[in-house]
Amino acid sequence: MNEAGAITPSNGGPVAVPTSIGHPPLPSAVKLQRLPSSLLLALAYLGLFLITRSFLFGNPIVHIDEQFYLFVAERMGHGAVPYVDIWDRKPVGLFVLYEAFVALPGDALLAYQFGAALATAGTALAISRLAREIASPAASWQAGVAYVLFMPAFNAGMGQAPVFYNLLVAVAALIVVDAMKRNEDKALVARGCAVMLLLGLAIQIKYTVIFEGAAFGLMLLARGFADIWTIRRLAAVALLWVTVALVPTLAAIAWYAGIGQLDAFIYANFISIFERGSDGARSYGRLAKECAALLPVWLAIFRAPRMFDTSGGLWPRSHSMLKIWGVVACLGFLLFGTWYDHYVTPLLVPLCVLAAPALARAQPGERWYGRFLLGFAALAGTVVPIYQVWRHGTATQYAEMSALISQEMRGGCLFIYEGELAFYRTIPTCLPTTRIFPNHLNTFIESTAVGMDPAAEVRRILANRPDVILMWAPQKLYLPNLETRAVMNKGLTQAYERYARYTLGTREYWLYRLRPNLRNPASSNAVQ
User: Fold this and answer.
1) Are 423 and 436 in contact (CB under 8 A)?
2) Residue 103 in contact with residue 77, Cβ under 8 Å?
3) With the CA atoms of 188, 202, 341 and 42 taken in that order, what torsion angle do they form, in degrees rounded to the nearest 10?
4) What contacts 219, CB < 8 A, 6 or more positions away?
5) CA 44: distance to chain centroid?
6) CA 32, 120, 22, 2 torsion: positive or negative?
7) Last residue of a domain, one of 336, 368, 388
8) Which residue has the higher pLDDT, 518 or 314?
9) What is the reported pTM?
């Protein structure tokens, strides 16, 4: 018997027993007996999430991306159309997902945060099941723990996009693993359709999933090739699977074509990203930092002794699938560029699986791999979100600053040139522009990729006289758009007065209001 509990006879062939990590067919009664353990494990992961993120719940400024997704979803409920009324380049499926959270009874902020908790716990459970292919049960559940702990270290502690699409990709991977172990499976085409549908939905949350989708599809076709499918059948099934994967995106395209906004959809989703500028050496600095933060994972995968030997070679095809998945996920991350911290989080799913064999080592000299990985994940996953709250502000500070803004609103627009976007959703205001995400107008790397001249747009906004304008106090800024900033400074000098300062987190904000003699009702040209 090997370390994982699988039995290997003297002739080297596998013996299918209920304790095998290869998941051979089980009687239904045995399956039902295993269900409570899965539920218990999921609840344990959920509890770990709630404990480690308890101080983030109810904070409306956890991350500006999450603020934006929730804001767009709420405006969609009042008729706003993404890419037309509110511009961004994220897939529309992400906003539809958040719209579902908004539709739930109660506080929309807590709804998406609890949704993130369920998605993280579900992904951790899928990771533990995938890790059983190459590791013992004790190591497998710890692989799920590593995922829950590591996510906040890369600024994905709550509702970042990968939190949700990682679940879809992990479940798809489970189906692929199962398919790889079945010879001449009559249900392979249907299983492939299920995988492609899951990945198609994931692509509508983040387009970079296409790399993993292509890899999974090729693995399934390789399974068909091994089953001696004809070339004609392979081609037909490949076409079917690609079509299924594209269904969610094609549905979005059809909807925008139906309302006459196909050009807006195509530009935002498929063109603008290639017009975006580069931040040069800064991006490579982020990449180096992220690779260093993953050092415990790299050590666990590449330095832990006897990698992939815990199953005795019982299911080598599934082992290869996990390795290929990890490589493709890493390549997709590297090819995409920019390398913001939350872009790392899709890698955590296959990497935590691959690191699992190191997590329950009992031999002297080997235990430290797992302890280092889990200890580092726990420390980084706690320190980073605490730092982010300290930097961006608490819910109490946010409420105080919100009151300062609200007292000067006169039924017109708030304009956030710099700062937390959440004020747009918690303060009654019209929208001064369709390019509402601050970085689209205040950074030079976005200046050529938002479908308009940012400086001209800022001039138009100021001409419509927003009631209140938010800016950071003069400081060293990240890749500022100097042209739009000059327009702002000129406009503020001509028509505005600073009426308050407030430090939200570590940032000092300057709050501007129209001079009394220039106050007027909200402009009819404002985006409602």
Assistant:
1) no
2) yes
3) -70
4) 176, 180, 321, 324
5) 22
6) negative
7) 388
8) 518
9) 0.90
